[in-house]
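Translate structure to sequence.
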């Protein structure tokens, strides 16, 4: 994973190079949930948007998924400004009259504290001060659903044992094939796609690149998947565990560090062929694992997929080519030396995941932390004292761990963390008060 430049810029065009068919430019940014927010502007007014920015009510950064402004009212609902980054301008294959670009957020003439793009850039700068540059490779899984005729949704391809299959049986409408081609054309580094393990679950693989480019690519991939499915009357969801009879969707993140143009995680003379830098970075990630869970698994639903024998780790541990551990070191060496975080939920915000992971690893590098002994074999089947500390089992526990982690909260910024905590705790409280179908099925008849 060494030395590859960010791929997002590969297909970027300047405003004057847009094809004549483009009439609208979609200026978008990522909120704290990871949702695409933005405004469409006529092509002719793009210059004004760049010069003046586009105003948004700041409360959108603290609004829950039921559209309740949790944070912002106490300040009188002030504005923030989204300023288009024209280096990210691309034409959308599935909307030939639309081009899209990402925006950087500002408030009161300065950087917006809750801007997740700016957060990743800050992590890159902190790493650079130590002499390193990171390469990030995200892996994202999602389900595709179709209307069930009764106001709900059912799985689009509901057949067992479709993992690693391609073609019309796995993708009868050509959704995945077209998405792969479109994401490649967008310059997102999409290089392969297939049906995943669960029924109607898919994955599009993205090449590794710089942290900001990787986060941009993952964010744009998720928006593209959902938009293109919606055009076909389908629903694509990155929700971690939408079905009780199936496993869930994850966000796996591969990380390597470069120094002086080479992968510094590789050391043929060392134990297992990995360097002290890999061990220090891994130790930092493990030291902050409970707090990282708040960003890696940011929903109540996410914790339903973190179960023994699910390939979603349950404890703070690591191992070599071991898919039952929190951090896995794949067998590749040389330029491919890297570590993989395996516990992330499909719903995770790629910017928050990338930034928080880098900040945790940076702490390990600065303090030259050493990880515990790597685990060999099935971590789920080991005695509790061998498995490592248990990861948070709920969103509430993870939020408490994040709030208590001075290193991560300091690195991410108090306003971003406090906004995230307030919004997510409000979500937990709404869930606590809600009578669910499970409640009715469990209690109504008998009690």
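Result:
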């Amino acid at each position: 994973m060494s030395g590859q430049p960010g791929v997002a810029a590969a297909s970027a065009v300047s405003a004057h190079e847009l094809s004549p068919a483009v009439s609208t430019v979609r200026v978008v940014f990522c909120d704290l949930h990871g949702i695409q927010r933005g405004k469409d502007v006529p092509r002719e007014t793009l210059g004004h948007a760049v010069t003046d920015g586009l105003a948004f009510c700041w409360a959108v950064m603290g609004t829950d998924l039921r559209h309740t402004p949790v944070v912002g009212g106490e300040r009188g609902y002030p504005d923030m400004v989204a300023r288009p980054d024209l280096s990210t301008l691309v034409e959308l294959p599935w909307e030939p009259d639309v081009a899209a670009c990402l925006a950087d957020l500002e408030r009161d003439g300065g950087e917006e504290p809750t801007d997740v793009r700016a957060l990743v850039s800050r992590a890159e700068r902190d790493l650079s001060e130590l002499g390193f540059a990171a390469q990030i490779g995200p892996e994202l899984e999602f389900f595709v659903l179709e209307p069930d005729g009764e106001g709900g949704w059912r799985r689009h391809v509901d057949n067992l044992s479709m993992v690693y299959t391609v073609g019309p049986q796995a993708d009868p409408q050509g959704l995945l094939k077209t998405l792969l081609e479109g994401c490649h054309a967008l310059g997102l580094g999409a290089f392969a796609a297939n049906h995943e393990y669960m029924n109607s679950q898919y994955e599009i693989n993205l090449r590794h690149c710089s942290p900001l480019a990787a986060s941009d690519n993952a964010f744009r991939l998720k928006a593209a998947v959902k938009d293109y499915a919606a055009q076909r009357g389908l629903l694509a969801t990155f929700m971690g565990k939408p079905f009780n009879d199936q496993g869930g969707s994850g966000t796996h993140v591969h990380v390597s560090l470069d120094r002086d143009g080479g992968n510094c995680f590789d050391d043929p003379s060392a134990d297992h062929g990995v360097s002290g830098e890999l061990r220090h970075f891994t130790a930092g990630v493990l030291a902050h694992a409970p707090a990282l869970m708040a960003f890696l698994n940011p929903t109540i639903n996410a914790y339903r997929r973190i179960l023994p024998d699910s390939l979603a780790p349950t404890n703070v541990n690591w191992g070599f080519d071991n898919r039952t551990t929190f951090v896995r070191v794949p067998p590749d060496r040389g330029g491919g030396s890297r570590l993989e975080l395996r516990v992330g939920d499909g719903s995770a915000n790629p910017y928050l995941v990338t930034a928080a992971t880098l900040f945790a690893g940076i702490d390990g590098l600065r303090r030259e932390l050493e990880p515990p002994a790597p685990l060999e074999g099935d971590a789920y089947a080991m005695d509790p004292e061998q498995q490592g500390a248990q990861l948070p089992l709920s969103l509430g526990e993870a939020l408490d761990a994040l709030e208590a982690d001075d290193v991560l909260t300091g690195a991410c910024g108090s306003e971003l963390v406090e906004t995230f905590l307030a919004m997510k705790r409000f979500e937990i409280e709404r869930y606590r008060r809600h009578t669910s179908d499970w409640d009715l099925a469990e209690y109504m008849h008998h009690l």
